[in-house]
Design brief:
P-loop_NTPase; 640 residues; elongated; nucleotide-binding; alpha/beta; 4-stranded antiparallel sheet; 23 helices
């Protein structure tokens, strides 16, 4: 039976939270829509999104006003362009219709000044709008990120054992990080582009309604062509990324130390070279196709961009030839200027539904995490763990436990377990792998909740105690020591931030690591590296013990703290553990029975039940499970 039941082990099932997501190219609409479809359904989603932006109501209103004003101002330059040509550069003599006279410089200067003023005002409004949207978006993002991180800290241990770290990081980085761009890339974009398109069509209609009809008829052909080519590029881009991922995977697999050793051991180097070369040829072909698709894309855009003004010129010529007096050089220049600026706003508006759907999916995934409720919480009337003579007593009364994601037909990890450990006792739990030993250490500090029965600490049901108070009184040294990429002193002070240097050294001496630390050039200021990689396994474990001793808890839990060490390191660490255990209630989860022969009481766990208990000599004499395990471990060196 697996100790973790139905998959409680770290890195196991991801449950409903799926796989880590990556950013999707804006051009790959089908992939984006597929991802959006996987977003959870959140009641009153729009209302909850509005609540996030409510503190920035004034700034949001000002942003909307700026967008509308800026979009409206964008219509003015084309109209001024018409006047610059017709009234400034090529004015017509009023007394002789059709007779162009010398440029009217005063009028031209006034029009040019007005155009520059509009450009300056538009630029200032754009800067102001960008600052507002960036400030609002990043403030909302920052608040959400801290809110989610805080919420995740309150989640029970089982959430992290069933959810991949990459999934959690994706929520914090990709989803929360995308909030800042929602305002800029969705709200402002949709609003601004809508007003721009409407204003541009109004301006075009005011300039000449016949030319507007021509532009409206031709514009869809350009937009459709651009979308079709864009889809082809997106598909090829997706294939290119998949090919690059495959090449990266081959590189990681074959050029790592383990991969090289494997290929050399089986003389498969040429096979790996062939794999890489084949994928490289695929990559070359895709890159060429992508480049050529891009060339056709730009060629088609250029053809359409050039064709529409050319057709407008032709229609304008026909209108002028037909006696249309309102079609002037200024009208034609102004009209083609406005028309040329319509393409990208139109393309953006064609993505409005997708952008809105993407933004909603983004917030839905965020709220899904924020709506998670920890299964282990303090009761409304929870109290601190009591001090006194009973402090350190640990009791299990008919405790049954099944991991949260275990199936109904799976046998419980613990089944009716009862025992009492008195204050100051050294209690060891031994048994086959997967018997449920480590689960005992999880239930004492209430990292998991017992399914049935009662766990008591200092005489009180742990469900009636404030969890922070309970954990403060328990120190845990696990098999997998975790050290931060920081100095030794910083890692020790994680247990007691206000600890003095003298307290650090006292804890280190008690853990038999002080002399080793002082042998480093930087002493306690030595940086241990990522996960403590600059230290040996034994050194890391002793620093972990020192960290727990600095906490000075009345109860110490040792979860196979020496099982991953070599014989020499194990002996040194075991001495430190023995010193640390003096005067404390100690619960040792042991794989190597030689480390617990001096325990005050040994509990033998098999298939979730305590089948034997007693001191070492008694259990050996009984000739049961413990005696059999002990003999097997004694004979193991001889077998090797």
């Amino acid at each position: 039976m697996s100790m973790h039941g139905g998959g409680g082990a770290p890195g196991g099932q991801t449950g409903k939270f799926g796989k880590p997501r990556t950013r999707i190219s804006a051009a790959d609409e089908s992939a984006q829509r597929a991802e959006n479809a996987e977003a959870p359904e959140i009641p009153n989603l729009l209302g909850r999104i509005a609540e996030l932006f409510a503190p920035h109501r004034t700034a949001l209103t000002l942003t909307v006003v700026l967008v509308l004003v800026a979009a409206g101002l964008s219509v003015i330059p084309p109209l001024l362009t018409q006047r610059a040509f017709d009234d400034g550069l090529f004015p017509v003599d009023p007394s002789e219709p059709g007779q162009v006279v010398a440029p009217n410089l005063p009028v031209l200067a006034w029009i040019v000044g007005a155009m520059i003023a509009v450009y300056i005002v538009s630029a200032l409004l754009a800067v102001w709008q960008t600052w507002l949207t960036a400030t609002i978006g990043n403030n909302v993002m920052g608040a959400l990120r801290v809110r989610m991180f805080t919420h995740l800290q309150s989640m029970e241990l089982s959430f992290f054992t069933r959810t991949k770290t990459g999934v959690i990081q994706s929520r914090l980085q990709n989803d929360v990080g995308g909030v800042a761009s929602v305002l800029t890339n969705t709200v402002s974009s949709v609003l601004g582009n809508t007003v721009t398109v409407i204003s541009a069509f109004i301006a075009m209609w005011l300039l000449n309604w016949q030319l507007t009809v021509v532009a409206i008829v031709l514009m869809p052909f350009m937009v459709i062509a651009q979308r079709r080519v864009g889809k082809v590029r997106a598909r090829i881009a997706g294939q290119t990324q998949e090919s690059l991922s495959e090449m990266t995977a081959i590189t990681q697999e074959t050029l790592s130390v383990s991969g090289i050793l494997l290929s050399k051991s089986f003389t498969r180097q040429q096979n790996e070279i062939d794999r890489y070369a084949d994928e490289n040829r695929t990559q070359i072909g895709l890159q060429v196709r992508q480049q050529m698709t891009g060339q056709w894309f730009f060629a088609m855009v250029n053809i359409f961009m050039s064709s529409i003004p050319a057709i407008v010129y032709l229609v304008a010529g026909l209108l002028i030839g037909g006696g249309a007096a309102d079609v002037t050089a200024g009208t034609i220049v102004a009209f083609t200027t406005v028309q040329a600026r319509l393409l990208f706003p139109l393309m953006a508006l064609m993505r409005v539904s997708l952008d809105l759907q993407t933004s909603s999916a983004l917030f839905a995934r965020i709220f899904e995490y924020l709506d998670l409720r920890p299964t282990i919480t303090d009761a409304p009337d929870a109290r601190d763990a009591a001090s006194g003579p009973a402090l350190g007593r640990v009791e299990f009364d008919g405790v049954t436990f099944r991991y949260p994601d275990a199936t109904d037909d799976t046998a419980p990890t613990l089944d009716g377990v009862s025992f009492t450990i008195e204050p100051g006792q050294y209690a060891a739990f031994v048994g086959p792998s997967g018997a449920g030993k480590t689960t005992v250490s999880y239930l004492v500090p209430r990292l998991y909740e017992a399914t049935g029965g009662t766990v008591r600490f200092a005489g009180d049901d742990v469900r009636e105690l404030r969890q922070s108070s309970l954990v403060e009184r328990i120190g845990i040294v696990s098999q997998e020591t975790y050290l931060f990429h920081a100095t030794i002193a910083d890692n020790l002070r994680y247990a007691k931030p206000e600890a003095t240097q003298a307290e650090l050294e006292a804890a280190a001496r008690a853990a038999n690591i002080h002399e080793t630390i002082m042998s480093f050039p930087a002493g306690y200021e030595t940086t241990v590296g990522e996960r403590g990689y600059r230290l040996s396994g034994g050194e890391k474990q002793r620093i972990a013990i020192a960290r727990v001793l600095l906490k000075d808890p009345p109860v110490l839990v040792l979860d196979e703290a020496t099982s991953a060490l070599d014989t020499i390191s194990e002996r040194v660490v075991q001495e430190a553990l023995d010193d640390a255990a003096r005067g404390r209630t100690t619960i040792a989860i042991a794989h190597r029975l030689s480390t617990v022969v001096a325990a005050d009481v040994i509990f033998v766990v098999v298939a979730g039940r305590i089948v034997e208990q007693g001191v070492h000599a008694e259990l050996i004499a009984a000739g049961g499970v413990y005696a059999s395990l002990y003999r097997q471990q004694e004979q193991a060196p001889a077998v090797r």
